[in-house]
């Protein structure tokens, strides 16, 4: 008995190619990104946020969005998402064949202005035609609310404020809301307060959690969210990630740590950990820095996989 009520299965949304690469200093060649995403698909990930259709001058690392989309493997059951801030972004995304449009705002005014150059009200007004047109074309719409626990410019954010922004997103009929702890300051207590405030207006099956891991609390926060009834978790291979407009933000919770935690607790993720680690090692070599997760630091021949099983005899 863990004491935590876990669901039978969890839907993982891999955001490494977008949230991860937007925070790297160098540009990863398009073909290399596509190869990495192919490895993530081979490892069993089924929802992958591949890139962003934002202003290329603001996030040059993802300026190749159209070219990347054209190279992505087409696999039954695999859905690609991308950030889309406005109608201009939707036009680009649509032509590129995107399936899930991710609009993004925040619960704090200052972060929104730094990130997308307008306030919360205006951001929501920009989403109206984006959501309408996306739905008209049969695309799914995910909406991020950033700074749900703390803002790098304003400090702590009240759960009621997040709830108000969520309510307005629901009026736009978005399909799903992902709650972003952008600077990774959440704890189980603040996560619970947040979910209690938001959970009675947003159905739990339409909520996702998106934890950056600045203080090492992301896995504990995820356990709290799952115990509360959430079943969708955002994560990034290798613990990559961070927002260029959120000073102090660290990487996302690492996909491999989440997979180990969940599969080791009897929760299905559909992900094969050894294959995922091949993707982790691949992108770490490309980026020239070691993965930040605990699981990636385990010597491959000593991997405790299947969880609780005998370490694999192969590898180093
Ligand atoms: P803007 O700079 O405020 O102003 O853009 P603009 O609308 O006047 O546009 C400026 C220029 O960008 C113009 O070009 C536009 O045409 C062009 P110019 O006339 O100078 O040649 N432009 C575009 N080009 C291509 N595609 C577009 C597009 N839109 C405008 N879609 C905008 C507003 C939102 C576009 C801009 O501020 C922007 O791109 N910001 C980047 C935001 C971003 O990507 N942030 C990081 C991701 S958010 C995140 O990480 C948080 C999350 O992970 C959750 C969490 O952790 O909390 C999701
Ligand atoms: Mg993020």
- H/E topology pattern: EHHEHEHEHHEEEHEHEHEHH
**Structural class category:** alpha/beta
What is the CATH T-level topology? TIM Barrel
* Sheet having the most strands: 8 strands, parallel
Task: Estimate the global geometry from the Cα principal axes.
Answer: globular
Helix fraction by DSSP (H/I, runs of at least 4):
25-40%
- Count of individual domains: 1
CATH class category label: Alpha Beta
- Number of helices, counting only DSSP H or I runs of 4 residues or more: 11
C-alpha Rg (nearest Å): 18 Å
Task: Summarize it.
By secondary structure, this protein is α/β, with parallel strands linked by helices. It is 38% helix and 15% strand.
Characterise the protein shown here.
This protein has 316 residues and is α/β, with parallel strands linked by helices. The chain has a single domain (11-302), classed as Alpha-Beta Barrel (TIM Barrel), CATH 3.20.20.70. 38% of the residues lie in helices and 15% in strands. β3 (79-83), α4 and β4 form a beta-alpha-beta unit. α2 (30-42) runs antiparallel to α11. The longest helix is centred in the middle third of the chain and has 17 residues, at 120-136. The two termini are 33 Å apart. The model has no long low-confidence stretch (mean pLDDT 95). The structure holds 3-hydroxy-3-methylglutaryl-coenzyme A (HMG) and magnesium ion. Residues 19, 22, 52-56, 58-59, 83, 85-86, 88-89, 92, 104, 115-117, 144, 146, 180, 182, 210, 212, 243, 245 line the site of 3-hydroxy-3-methylglutaryl-coenzyme A.
């Amino acid at each position: 008995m863990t004491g935590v009520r876990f669901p039978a299965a969890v839907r993982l949304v891999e955001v490494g190619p977008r949230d991860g690469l937007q925070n790297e200093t160098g540009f990863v060649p398009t073909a290399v990104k596509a190869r990495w995403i192919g490895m993530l698909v081979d490892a069993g990930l089924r929802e992958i946020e591949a890139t962003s259709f934002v202003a290329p001058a603001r996030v040059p690392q993802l300026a190749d969005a159209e070219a990347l989309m054209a190279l992505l493997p087409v696999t039954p059951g695999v859905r690609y998402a991308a950030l889309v801030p406005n109608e201009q972004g939707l036009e680009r995304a649509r032509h590129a064949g995107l399936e899930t449009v991710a609009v993004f705002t925040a619960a704090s005014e200052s972060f929104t202005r730094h990130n997308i150059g307008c306030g919360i009200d205006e951001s929501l007004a920009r989403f109206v035609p984006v959501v309408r047109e996306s739905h008209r074309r049969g695309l799914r719409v995910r909406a991020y609310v950033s700074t749900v626990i703390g803002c790098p410019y304003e400090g702590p954010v009240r759960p009621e404020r997040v709830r108000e922004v969520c309510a307005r997103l629901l009026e736009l009929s978005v399909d799903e809301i992902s709650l972003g702890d952008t600077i990774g300051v959440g704890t189980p207590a603040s996560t619970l307060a947040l979910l209690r405030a938001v959970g009675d207006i947003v159905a739990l099956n339409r909520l996702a959690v998106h934890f950056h891991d600045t203080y090492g609390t992301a896995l504990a926060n995820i356990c709290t969210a799952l115990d509360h009834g959430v079943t969708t978790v955002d994560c990034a291979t290798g613990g990559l990630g961070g927002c260029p407009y959120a000073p102090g933000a660290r990487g996302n919770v690492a996909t491999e740590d989440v997979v180990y935690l969940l599969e080791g607790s009897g929760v299905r993720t559909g992900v094969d950990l050894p294959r995922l680690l091949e993707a982790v090692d691949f992108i770490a070599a490309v980026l020239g820095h070691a993965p930040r997760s605990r699981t990636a630091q385990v010597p491959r021949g000593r991997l405790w996989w299947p969880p609780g099983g005998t370490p694999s005899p192969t590898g180093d």
